[in-house]
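Section handout 9: paired folding examples.
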Amino acid sequence: MEKSRREFLKNATKTSIAVAGVSVALAGCSKKGSSENLVRGKSPKTEILYQKTKQWDMYYSVAK
């Protein structure tokens, strides 16, 4: 009884380590993500990051 229980625990430990190793290896080989189909650099719009306004002038004067 004791010997069979010990063998079962050893086999279960080996199996769980093998499964964990395979899952880590497969997780590293996954796809790059959903951004691989993005088209970049062909937008006709210009991006405006800053417009000079009274509020921005007040913010920058306080931030100095």
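Moving on to protein 2 of 2.
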Amino acid sequence: MTPVIAAVLLLQGVPATTDTVAGRPCRVAVDSMGHYAEIPNADGTKTVHGGGGVLAHCDGTSTTISADSFAHYPALGRLDLIGRVAIRDTGLALDARFASYFLRDERLEAHNNVVAVNRRTGSVLRGPNLKYWRAAKGVRDTVEMYATQRPTVEYRQNEPGDTHRAGRQELHARGDADRARPGAARHPPSEGARPGQSDGRRLDADGGHDRSPHRRPTAAADVRLG
């Protein structure tokens, strides 16, 4: 069996907490993976692959990331998470079968059995896809979410058991998923757009700093992406 490898990945913005909201890179520590490989490219970069089950966290925060495998393509500025993707922070819990994170414009695209939970309100979005633009200094100042192909949203109200379930052709939420508007946008926000200031609650995480001891890397191997 391939020995477990621990690595430290420097990524420009895996969905994280106040480290990246303030414009700093998210330091993603990969705690374990079954196997690892680097493939040289003609332009001198290396495509990095990790598999066999990947567990990671954003260093200095409570954000965790897991997937069956990952691949990083430096020329594209893209990190792919493949199979049983789970991202957890203090504001958002996201599950999907596949997700791509575009490092340069702070955009996450999740596909196949997507479930996104607002951990502050308990509202749940389910659907085949979700695009998530993270708030980041110098890029955009509020979160946006966009889902198509008839997503459903369960809104949790203040009273116990008071839940409203809505289905729609598409959903566009800006600043607060609980203020989502059916059909509000027929096209997703442009990748370089800078939305105006929003007073709504963001879905990216608060600045948690809890780290369980078992999350610490145990080997010296370093891989730097970004």
